[in-house]
Design goal:
Helix content: 55-70%
Largest sheet: none
Distance between the termini: 36 Å
Number of strands: 0
Radius of gyration: 12 Å
Structural class: mainly alpha
Order of helices and strands: HHHH
Number of helices: 4
Shape: globular
Amino acid sequence: AFMRNNVKKSEEYFSKAVTLNPKNAATIKNLIVVYSKTGRQKDTVSLWHKLREIAPQDPDVQRVFNAPAQK
């Protein structure tokens, strides 16, 4: 669904997957991408914080949270 740009279906599938396995970093990252593509900034930020809690050493988490502040 995601590869075909069916964002609504992608969100449905990834949301369900995160509910079933809330500590799966890859699934959370996919849902972050969907939320980001649809302008859901609050949800995107919330998921980044959740991901940081469960996978603080994840390279993407490190990149996001250790990036210099933008001006």
